[in-house]
Structures are given as C-alpha cells and as structure tokens.
Amino acid sequence: MAHSHYDVLIIGGGTGGIMTAAQLHRKDNKLRIAVMDPSKDHWYQPAWTLVAAGTFDMKDTRRDEASVIPPGVDHVKEYAATFEPEANTVRTREGNAYTYGHLVVAPGIQMNIDDLPGLREALQTDHVCSNYIDPEKTLRVMKAFKGGVAVFTQPSTPIKCGGAPQKAAYMADEFFRKSGVRTKTKLVFATPGSMIFGVQPFRAALEDVIRKKEIIFKAFYDPVRIDPVKKEIHFKWSKPGDNHCALTEEQGLPEKIEGERTIVMKYDMLHLAPPQSAPDFVRNSPLSYAEGPNKGWLEVDIHTLQHTRYVNIFGLGDAAALPTAKTGAAIRKQAPVVVANILQRIKDGALSKNEYSGYSSCPLVTGYGKMLLAEFKYDNVRDSDPLLSRLFDTGKPLWSMWVLKKYMLPWLYWNRMLKGAM
Predict the structure, then answer these.
(1) CA–CA separation, 215 and 194 (whole Å)
(2) Dihedral angle of Cα 105, 334, 326, 214, to the nearest 10 degrees
(3) Pairing between strand 110-111 and 97-105?
(4) For a Cys staple, 19 with which of 109, 216, 303, 335, CB 3.0–4.6 Å?
(5) What span, in angstroms and rounded, lies between the C-alpha atoms of 176 and 188?
(6) What is the Cα–Cα distance from 141 to 151, expressed in whole angstroms?
(7) Which residues 6+ apart lie within 8 Å of 44 measured at CB?
(8) Residues 244 and 125 in one domain
(9) What are phi and psi of 409, to 5 degrees?
(10) Which one is catalytic: 362, 372, 374, 401?
C-alpha cells in the first residue's frame, strides 16, 4: 500500500528508476522508497533491433513491471502530472499528492509521432515501420519487400540509442541479401548529421561497413514530412551555412529538389526513428530548461546529476539534458552516482565524490553475427572498458561482440542490473 511521504520518490520504472531503487535499497533498507510508474510492462528495448531482424523473440524482451520492482520498494501505479519542488511534492493525474525527502526523475523519453507530419498516417501503411514502435512490424515489412528504394532515417531531435536507426539499415542489408532482393534494392541511410558516427575509431569502421554494404549515405538530410499516398519523404537540407541543397549522383535514386532547401525522395520501404523529447510532464515543469538548446529537458549538473536549482532532486536517463548518448549503458554508470549522492546528502547534507564522466556505449550490430561496441564519454572521447579492450578490438565488428549483445547483455540486464548488483 502506498504511503503519502517517501524518503526517496523515484519517477519512472524503466532502467534508470529500477536500478536506482534497487541500489538504494541494497545500501540502506531502512529508507522508505517508491517507484512511481503506471506501466504494466517493462521492456528490454536494446533487443528490439534483433527482434526486427528475426533473431530474437519479442516476448523475451518483456516482463511484468511489478516483477522488476525491488522487494521492499513500493510501486505507486500512478501517472506523475506536476512537480511542486518548493513544497517537495509530486501530484498525480489520479489526483493524489506525494511528498519526498529526495526526488529522482527518470521517466525516460517520449515518442512524438505527430511532430513529423504524415508519420502517423504512414505508419498505418504496409511500407513504413519503426523499431522504436513495433519491431515485429519491421520484420513483416522486410519480409514483404520485393526490391526498390529502402530508406532509413532519423530526426534532428535527440533520440534514445542514437545508433539504432543505422543498425536497422545494416541488418536490413543482410536480410535483403538472404531473401534475394538486395541486388534490386537502393538502400539509403539519411541523417541530419554530418557523419555516420562522431567518435573515432568507430566512425572509420562504420564508414567501411557502409562502403562494403553499398549503402547510399546522405548527410544533412533532416526529415520534415511524409506523404504516404505518394510514398515520398521530404527532407530539409540541414548543412550549417548552406542554404542551397545539392544532390549527389547515385544512379537511379528517385529524389528531386523542391525550392532551395527541400529534397523529396520516393520510397518503397521506409524505416525511421520518430521525433522524441522528454515526457510532457517534465518538459512543461519547473524542473526543465526553459530556454536554450536544452529547452524541455531535465536540468541537472552533468557530473553530479543533481538538479541545478533544487538540491534534493536528481535526474538520470533519457529525460536528462546530458551531452552523451541516451542508452542503458549510460544509465548503468549514472545510477551509482545518484545513489551515492543521495545517501551522502541524507548522512550530512553534502555530495559524494562520485561523478559521472559521460560514459555511454552503442552496441552497433552491423550484420548477423557481427557487432562493434562503441564506448565513449563526454566530448566524444573513446572510453573503452579496460578488460574488454584487452581481450577484443571492440572498434571492429566481431562475432564475440554479437554474442555479448544477443546473450550476455540481456541476461545481465534482467539478473544483475535491475537487481542493483551492477
């Protein structure tokens, strides 16, 4: 039964919320802790790329949310609606109020399908899909694909697991080779960015993957509209300081320029990540940045993860304004910092010496049985695990990294990370 006051109230029952709750409870089981989340399901979303490629079962990525709440931690099955940080209060959509000694905000990220005109309608067709929404549909679309133009793209907003859209393209390439339609296919990866990946040596390795797979790479392509009837996607040319887009000459690729900055490309299959943001109850709250490039994202110190204006509030995970990739691997390094700082504040009002360096990693699956593990920290500095890097060259696609992705990481997630053991 829920109480009205908690020593630590955690908003969000995803990876960040559960890891933080489990670690706090392990270190001090006298604390009254609650996780507020109305969800019935808890998903291991890193495996959805493999689901879409037909090499992982969707049912194995799901658990009951109640089953991952640590024993001894309350589960408040309500929707957080408003924050009143001066009163140390969270009000819920159900009309209840909960007070706290410390608040942890880890609600994850929100898909804004309607922010890309035409996307909602396009997703109702048999030609448009997204691993972020329904990876099983992606598999159905790829099975039905008979050749033509297959476009893979992503928005200019921050997204969870920034490497996922290109992973979908790599797996599609091999899937189409197995199904015999690759020779009849123009496979395009279009991104608003200037390069395939921002950290060396992973960028060079991925450029080599694209070259060998004969994927048509389009930089500075920012998707702005989809016409599902004509099966066209419209891109805005996003190169800084350049107001006139120019097409490269890929033989037979059906694209054209409209006006100065719009590129229209026909597709026979389209896969994309939807525009994303912090959940509305965060981005419209006093806890988020009101202005600037991080507007709408949770305002925290990038090293301590403490809110910059409310000292008893901490944030982690995808909703936080942190200049690194939004991944479960990042959360694994963030949660111990939040836990240490809360425990130290409870003890003497100070912060611990623990700091978050911006570590994140992207397990970039480049084909069936091949993966490279891109690990990095703030400022796009490589930050590879010292043990793994002694045993493997994680900057190259390897079968051993595929085994890590498909078998080891899911087991570690359910049995270690969510239990607060790592």
Answers:
(1) 16
(2) -170
(3) unpaired
(4) 335
(5) 13
(6) 13
(7) 60, 61, 62, 63, 410, 413, 414
(8) yes
(9) -65, -40
(10) 362
Is residue 362 part of the annotated active site? The answer reads yes
Say whether 394 sits in a helix, a strand or coil.
Answer: coil
161 catalytically annotated? yes
Number of domains the chain is built from: 2
Q: Among 228, 247, 275, give the residue marking a domain's end.
A: 275
Q: Which residues have a Cβ under 8 Å from the Cβ of 95 and sit 6 or more positions away?
A: none
| Exposure on the CB side of residue 334, measured as CA atoms within 13 A | 36
**Domain that includes residue 183, residue range:** 118-275
H or E element, residue 101: strand 97-105
H or E segment at 390?
helix 386-391
Whose tokens are 């490497």? That residue is 163
Q: Residue 309: which residues within 8 A CB-CB, separation 6 or more?
A: 85, 299
The parts of the chain modelled with pLDDT lower than 50 are none
Closest CA to 56 of 372, 422, 328, 413: 413
Distance, in Å, from the CA atom of 211 to the CA atom of 15, rounded to the nearest integer, reads: 35
Which of 24, 104, 159, 161 is flagged as catalytic? 161
CA pair distance 256, 258, nearest whole angstrom: 7
Structure tokens belonging to residue 409:
């990481």
378 within some domain: no
Are 34 and 75 in contact by the 8 Å Cβ rule? The answer is yes
CATH classification at residue 211 = 3.50.50.60
What is the C-alpha separation between 154 and 221, in angstroms, rounded? 9
Contact 362, 391 (CB under 8 A): no
Number of CB atoms found within 10 A of residue 390's CB: 8
State residue 395's pLDDT score.
80
For the full predicted model, state whether its pTM sits above 0.90.
Answer: yes
Q: Are residue 84 and residue 144 in the same domain, yes or no?
A: no
- 85 is written with which tokens? 């940080």
Indicate whether 338 and 268 sit together in one domain: no
Question: How far is Cα 73 from Cα 412, in angstroms, rounded to an integer?
Answer: 21
Give the DSSP H/E element, type plus range, for residue 217.
strand 216-218
From 242, 275, 308, give the residue that closes a domain. Answer: 275
Distant-in-sequence, close-in-space partners of 344: CB < 8 Å, separation ≥ 6: 350, 351, 352
> Is 365 contained in some domain?
no
Judge contact between 227 and 120, C-beta under 8 A.
Answer: no
Q: Cα Rg for the chain, rounded, in angstroms?
A: 22
